[in-house]
Design a protein that fits this description.
Elements: E1 2-4, E2 20-23, H1 27-40, E3 46-49, E4 53-57, E5 69-72, H2 75-84, E6 92-94, H3 97-105, E7 110-112, H4 117-126, E8 133-139, H5 146-152, E9 156-167, H6 172-179, E10 185-188, H7 191-201, E11 211-214, H8 217-223, E12 229-232, H9 238-244
Parallel strand pairs: 2-3, 5-6, 5-8, 6-7, 8-9, 10-11, 11-12
Antiparallel strand pairs: 1-12, 4-9
């Protein structure tokens, strides 16, 4: 993991001083992450869940005529597809284990193409697609323009937005606990969540020993202005985020 520490702040804090973790993921993912933390580090952390995003699945027709393979870059995309279509016979390419696991449980012939949408994109660009057509099931906010990159390379790819990620405020009691130093670490799983967190905390007097654990450099850039100690996970996976706590 990489640590980015402002002057005067030491990144090496004892596990005892980082007991309380604020999880800001959408609730289903937050609850799963809290469970994973306890399984990996039993008794070392207590978790407070305060989602900064909620997922709203949109109801839309899903036209699969001519589609050779689906692309899922999040578990939310898989769930949204399952709620909008009864088709399970089209193979899928997945970025991240979470999307892969949900797709496989739904009896979709899914293959894992790396931990991130960027790696999935690079894999497709590096290979011959033999005229295959792809449909990316995604949300209203995307970290990268996957279908745009594929289309620029002559690969037939469309996107279908089947869910929205709605911004949520910090509950007043959680904001008060943050300001009082009662929270020791905040894992941030996306650049958008990190940006929302930075905006919500911009006028708060946060304690200087609050540790922000970011899944990527892009996420870390969104919270740099808060002037707190930053740790970037070794790779964009849940296990690496737990290791970085």
């Amino acid at each position: 993991m990489r640590s980015l520490c402002p002057a005067g702040i030491t990144q090496k804090m004892s596990k005892q001083s980082r007991r309380t973790v604020l999880i800001t993921r959408p609730r289903p993912q937050a609850e799963q992450f809290a469970k994973a933390i306890e399984e990996a580090r039993p008794g070392l952390f207590s978790c407070i869940i305060a989602p900064l995003l909620t997922i709203e699945i949109l109801k839309k027709p899903v036209d699969l005529v001519g589609v050779d393979a689906l692309i899922f870059t999040s578990a939310n995309g898989v769930r949204a597809f399952l709620e909008n279509s009864t088709r399970r016979d089209i193979p899928a390419l997945c970025a991240g284990k979470a999307a892969y696991i949900v797709a496989r449980k739904a009896q979709i012939n899914a293959t894992l193409q790396g931990p991130t949408a960027g790696e999935l994109r690079d894999t497709l660009l590096a290979g011959s697609q033999d005229g295959r057509s792809f449909l990316h099931i995604t949300g209203n906010h995307q970290a990268i323009d996957l279908t745009g990159s594929l289309g620029n390379a002559g690969i037939s790819a469309e996107k279908l937005v089947l869910y929205d990620q709605l911004r949520q405020p910090l509950p007043p009691d959680v904001a008060a606990l943050l300001a009082a130093g009662g929270i020791h670490a905040v894992p941030l799983f996306s650049p958008r969540t990190a940006k929302i967190f930075a905006e919500l905390c911009s006028s708060m007097n946060l304690p200087p020993d609050l540790a922000l654990v970011c899944i990527s450099s892009a996420a870390a850039q969104q919270v740099e202005k808060l002037g707190l100690a930053l740790t970037i996970a070794d790779n964009p996976t849940q296990s690496a985020m737990i290791d970085a706590l």
